[in-house]
Amino acid sequence: MAFNGKGIIMLKQFMGAVLVLASLVTGGTAWAEGKQNFTLKNRTGYTVAEVYVSPAKSDDWEEDVMGGDVLDNGENVHIQFSRAAKSCMWDLKVVYDDEVEAEWAGFDLCKVSTISIFYDRKKDETWAEYE
How far is C-alpha 130 from the chain's CA centre? Predict the structure, then answer.
């Protein structure tokens, strides 16, 4: 199979994205840790079935970083990036086990180490706090 110059660039971009996703899914033990790593804390009272992390400039959520796992209420998950990930600004999307979605935009993961998500049932409000 032959690639032209554009095909090689696209292949390199694709492989870079695969490395980022692989490090998120595998927990990153074999990968060099990126500066965007963070801990997601579920304080919503509900189980999170899916978690998506995407560069703020992207229109695609890519793949669920939890794989087949879930994040129960009160639990935390450490999300790791490969060192190749350069962007600091990332968006976060969670899908609860009842298929309700919540999204947040523009976390500076070069400065944020923990994101806690919450839900107030009485007000029907979801929010995130970070440190």
Answer: 14
Token reading at 12: 């390199």
Amino acid at the residue 109: L
Tell me how many degrees the CA angle 22-26-27 measures, rounded to the nearest 5: 115
Please report how many Cα atoms fall inside a 13 Å half-sphere around the Cα of residue 87, on the Cβ side. Answer: 14
CATH topology for the 5-130 domain: Immunoglobulin-like (2.60.40)
Q: What is the pLDDT along the chain (131 residues), one digit of tens a residue?
A: 343 444 444 434 444 444 455 444 444 444 446 799 999 999 999 999 999 999 999 999 989 999 999 999 999 999 999 888 889 999 999 999 999 999 999 999 999 999 999 999 999 999 999 99
Domain locations along the chain: 5-130
65 contacts 114 by C-beta, under 8 angstroms: no
The reported pTM is 0.74
* 58-82: burial string, b at 16+ Cβ within 10 Å, e else: eeebebbbbeeebbeeeeebebbbb
